[in-house]
Amino acid sequence: MEKAIEFILVKFPFIRQRLDVHLLEVLNGAAVALMLKVLGTGLTFCFNLLLARTLGAEGAGLYFLALTVATIATVVGRMGLDNTLLRFTAENAAVGDWVAVKGVYWQGMRLAILASLASAIIMFFSAPLFADMVFHKPELISPMRWMALAVVPMSILILHAEMIKGLKRIRDSLLVYGVGVPALSLVGLYFLGSTYSVQGAVWAYTVAVLLTMIVGAMFWWSAVPQLRNIAGHFEIRELLESSRPLWGAKLLSMITNWTAILVLGIWGTEGDVGTFSIASRTVMITSLVLMSVNSISAPKFAALYKNGEIKALGLTARNTTKLTTFMASPLLLLFLFYPKGVMQIFGSDFESGAILLSILAIGQFVNVASGSVGYLLMMTGNESLMRNIAAFIAAMSVFLNVVLISFYGAVGAAIVTTICLSLQNIISVYLVWVRLRILTVPFVKAGKIFNNLDSR
Fold this sequence. Notes:
By secondary structure, the chain is mainly α. The chain is built from 19 helices and no strands. The N and C termini lie far apart (48 Å).
């Protein structure tokens, strides 16, 4: 992929002339990330397709409910340390402070392992309560308990992937999380799904996470030979000062992201949950380019801000948004105007999800067109702003989901998801402009939108 980009730049020198050194670095890194993201997304799509065709809408609904609870437990257990470890690893590796890097690693891992273990134990023993009294689906007990075993290894896996990303080893980071988990899950589901149904799908995911966690740890230690003969040191107070607001933001963002499925699980059927989950995971393909760019741009943002290169930071952020918007547009158009054909791929049980796919695509367009505003805030010391935004959106999400799902079911869930995602990005765009004087929205002159607001 990098060679292909270099070939284009050689053949068309006027393109190279328009790219600064920072955007070239992001572009080259994003090319590798995009290739691996395409692979990972393809594997995830195949997993969802096999899951849908093997288990049907009801079986898929039970699987995604168990996965949702496990994901929440994992977010709680990580304590907001994923982006914090990414930030401090990138900053200290950039200046060669390996003592600090090792200190960040050990302090972060200790905190996350203890918190994740507590979270997993609570999920395991509270499974009957959730399955019977909350979701009214007693068949969910066993999947939830098996899924609880994935909480600790998933937390460790994600932290390793983020720290590897902080070293700008994007390929290894994405191989660990973006490719490893869906690839092994797909293989496991192929052999276990038809025989053991939902249980087999959960086993496939849990084993995949455990194996990939081991690979992630090996990748990390092979990437940092500088840490082997030194004693690490980093103030845990500084780590927690950064992670606490991010943890709050993650928990609140988790409410926004998962309330729809949880409320559908309470008031809807397994089929509603399965159809909505497949539609929402399918539309996430449109953010593939944004996530690929974020993989390299996040540590780049942190390094540029650390060095005081605000102008370069703004130019890089704006240009990457143009790139992501341009590349995501074809899929967005497909999901908007041909949703039924897409959902039919998963089987006749999922055709009713066509309208959900179209609604969700609108929110993803706003997400992609806004750019990496979340990472810009987090990588520049504005974690508390992210927490405040997340709090407002989470409250809105809970209220709207309860109201609209009770009247419109899965369609209401899709409407709320789109509203909340769009509003969160619009607010973040504005706050990035206020704090950093950076406007990420492409094809608009910097300041044109907000100058009138600032003057009031």
